[in-house]
Amino acid sequence: MAPAREAGLELACPAVRLAADWLARAEACVLRLAATSARREGGGSSSLSGAGGEFIGHRPYRRGDDPRLVDWSVTARLGQPWVRVLRREARERWAVLLDTSASMGVGPPGKLQRAAELAGTLALFGASRGAEVALLASDGSEFRMARRTARELRGLRAFLEARRAAGRTQALDLVARRPALRPATRLFLISDPFAWKPRELAALGARARAWHALQLLAPHELVPPAAPALDWRDPESPRALELELDGATRAAYARELAAELARWSAHARRHGGRHGVWSSALPFEAILRDAFGA
Amino acid sequence: MAAPHLAALGFERPWFALALLLPLVLLWLARRAARPEALHTSAFELWLRVRLARPAQAAHARRTLPLSWVLYALGLAALSVGLMQPRPARGDTARPLRVVVDRSPSMYLADGARTRWAAALAAFEAQADAWPALRGAADGVLWVDAGADPPELVLARWPPADWAAAPRAPRAALDWARHDAAGVVFLSDDAEALAAAATRSAGWVASGGAAVPGPVGRRGALRVDWDGGALVEREDAQGAARVSIDRALDAELARFARVWTAARGLLAVEDAPAPAACELALVVAPGAAGDELELGREGWSARARVLGSGCAAAAGCEPWLRASDGRVLVSRCPGRVEVALDGLRTPAEEAAAFAVSWGGLFDAALLPAPGVVTLDERRAARAGIREPLAPPTDPEIEQRAARWRAACFLAAAACVAAAFALVRLPARAARG
Asked: Which of A294, B89, B129, B270 is least surrounded by Cβ atoms within 10 Å, i.e. has the fewest?
């Protein structure tokens, strides 16, 4: 067994610092997601598009709304843009699960940082589509938004920046403690591939119409650094393991990682979910574009 | 050089052993430096699986110290040991204390009831045990009468009893510096003379002593006395000093001896019943006259027949005239001249040179009259004591210890040079 000893090593990237232009970038990304969703809504192939819905009323236009939903008659009568509200959208309840365990503090670039940017953007996107979005962190905190008011946007930024990578992931506890998850029609999990087991997420998303697992890995978790040896530390326990990184060891790790990710993909396919793994070195826009075609 | 046995190893400066901590600290730092970079990973379980699948690889995955660091540490260790000054343990190297004694006539002058010799011995006995530098000395004392020819050495607790009496033969002045070494003590009466010798390692005990008036010379039947201020000639009750002339002595030589005796105011005695009791005895070597040969020195030459095989070798005697084949024809001891010549014929024109040469021989062999001590020796002497610097050691052992020290420093230099080369050469190759 590996020699266990006190880790004594600070997490590289335990905090979230959203850039000043993050909201603008997120809004731009939401527009691209909305456009993509609208383009595909007819074909029903977008991972974020619904199946259309019954008209139930109007509401003022919000930035990011699909222009095709603008009711031009009402807009002409009232002098400001109004859009049609469909029953599908009114029923949407999104849940975005943000893993804030210590393993998300691995980096750089920090996985929690990238995860927070992704979670915030998805929350904005859900709200722009009229969904009620619950942002649930694995540390037990949560944030809800539906209208994208300025207050909500400030609250969203504050919520995300208050997150710290710490503790162990308790996925099943989260399932039990969060009734808010039960009515969710769409579920997003943003974590690393090792914090959750595929069956845990499947159980969590069983009631949802769709679930997505956006998984992040630090660059050195995808490809070990070119050092002759490394002292690997478990961020969630005091365990440590020194290993020589020769070619055979690197190849063995690559095989193990590929097998782990393949298990996730297979499980996701089997249970109607979607799954993907990205490097935390990628900008959140690139990850969302890759995940949802935005 | 024999391999040193660790148990037989001692150190001159053992406190430098603290410096041995330096290589340990260096190795500890090297071990820390060799530790691989620590990185968190959420894939820790995957790495565990990788290691379990490759246990043999994992076993030697860490902490190989760079050779250069090991060499630096070895160099530091060798330097530290060198600074500790390794040497064979004291028990192996201890030698008896060496006491070089001054047996000049002044040592036997009595200042009251005790001679300076006795006073010096008593002072030495009182002092020697208190000298820390001598604690490593082996038991016993090697007493050295350096003035004797050849020097006399006696290993005993005390010097031989006969050394308590003044030697009959006059002594050459001691060259103290020749005997200067660790573990040596000089025993004399005059601290000023010892200090003037500027020795570095030897200690000394000088008895000192008040001036002792008395006879300082003799001329015929007269004795010259020093009364503490002036010299006074007095008639000597003992009469003139006696020269014993062997009846068998070559006639030419016997005639010259009588002339020389008369010139010196001495009394010539033929066939004295106890020649050794005379101030000078001219004796003939045993044996029949043999081959005739040519001989000479100091400007004179002669022909003579050799008696027997020449003069017998005797302790304290030195050859004065040799044949070309090495036989000793004339030898000289204090108070005695032995001649193995007969039928000596000297050219008349070389008579003066002959007389000066033989006269010098007789003068040198003539013993001083009993009780006669030179004026310089009779003057007051200053007492003094100086501790020797170190216990006596075997010079060969000292050389071996020096070689060990040199080997340590050499090893240190080699290790550092090798480590430096290990670090620099690859860097230079990389630049090239």
From this structure: B129
**Residue B198 sits in the same domain as residue B123:** yes
- Please, are residues A183 and A176 in contact by the beta-carbon 8 Å criterion? no
Is A54 contained in some domain?
no
Pairing of strands B328-333, B267-270: unpaired
Rounded to two decimals, what is the model's pTM?
0.49
Residue B296 in domain: yes
Residue B183 covered by a domain: yes
Of B292 and A104, the structure prediction assigns the larger pLDDT to A104
Q: Rounded distance, CA A76 to CA B316, Å? A: 148
DSSP one-letter code for B393: B
Which residue's structure tokens are 């008011």? A149
Half-sphere exposure of A289 (CA within 13 A, CB side): 10
Chain mean position to CA B337: 29
Using a 10 angstrom Cβ sphere, with 0-12 exposed, 13-18 middle and 19 or more buried, the burial of residue B285 is buried
Q: Chain B residue with minimal CA distance to A13?
A: B40
Q: Which string of DSSP letters, residue by residue, matches B298-320?
A: TTEEEEEEEETT-PPP-TT-EEE
Task: Please report residues of B whose CB lies closer than 8 A to that of A242.
Answer: 35-36, 61-62
Judged by CB atoms closer than 8 Å, whether chains meet at B49 and A256 is answered as: yes
Least CB-CB distance to A243: which of B40, B43, B58? B58
Q: Which domain holds residue B158?
A: 95-212+376-386
Helix (H) / strand (E) element for B360: namely: helix B351-365
For chain A, give percent helix, strand, coil, nearest 5: 40, 20, 35
Helix, strand or coil for residue B279? coil
Residue A59 lies in a domain: no
For an interface test with A, give the residue of B50, B54, B57 to mutate (most A CBs within 10 A): B50
**Bridge partners, B318 (sequence order):** B332
Number of domains in chain A: 1
Question: How many folded domains does chain B comprise?
Answer: 3
B37 reaches A (C-beta below 8 A):
yes
Band the pLDDT of A44: cuts 50, 70, 90.
very low
Find out whether B282 and B257 touch, Cβ atoms under 8 Å: yes
Report if residue A237 sits inside a domain. Answer: yes
Would an 8 Å CB–CB cutoff place B43 in contact with chain A?
Answer: yes
Q: How distant, in Å, are the alpha carbons of A213, B257, B311, B333, B356 from that of B283? A: 130, 12, 10, 11, 20
Q: Quick one: B405 and B334 in the same domain?
A: no
Burial of A23 (0-12, 13-18, 19+ CB in 10 A): middle
Starting at the edge strand found earlier in the chain, the sheet holding B152-156 runs B152-156, B138-145, B96-101, B184-188, B203-206, B384-386
A17 vs A163: CA distance, rounded Å: 10
Shared domain for B168 and B246, answered yes or no, is no
Question: pLDDT tens digits for A158-216?
Answer: 999 999 998 886 665 566 556 667 677 888 989 988 877 777 776 766 666 678 889 99
Strand order through the sheet with A142-145 = A142-145, A132-137, A93-98, A186-191, A210-217, A273-279
ipTM of the complex: 0.81
Same domain for B247 and B176: no
Strand B222-226 versus strand B231-235 pairing type: antiparallel
Query: Is there a cis peptide before residue B14, judged by omega within 30 degrees of 0?
Result: no
Residues B136 and B205 in one domain: yes
